[in-house]
Design goal:
This protein is mainly α. It has helices at 2-16, 26-53, 59-78, 82-90, 98-122. It contains 5 helices and no strands.
Amino acid sequence: MKILNILFFHVYNAYYKDGNYSNDIPHLTAYGIVACSLSMLFTSILLFTFALLDVKLAKISVIILFVGFLLLLFYYFFYEKKYATIYNLIKDSKWDNFRFKIASWLIVILGFVSVVVYSYLFNR
């Protein structure tokens, strides 16, 4: 969960700017980016499942996994405003540095790229 918190913090902080919002609701924007990206990383698991076991899940199963993960993360970040707790916990800690910021954004980008790879491999 620590990695999830660090990832959320760096995306959230890109929009929050220490209270100077660059949009109206930075916590919801950060949730949308992180949750969608991590849901899409499930496609990597699906690719490994296909490569190792030659099992391809039905489209409805994939959709249920994605939506379930989105709901789970929504609960995780927003129940009792945990996004604020995460921000205060990681702000000015050893996790709040440029190296982790780059790593967090690379994970987000990897999540979105994995969908392209998944689509390419299964729709040829």
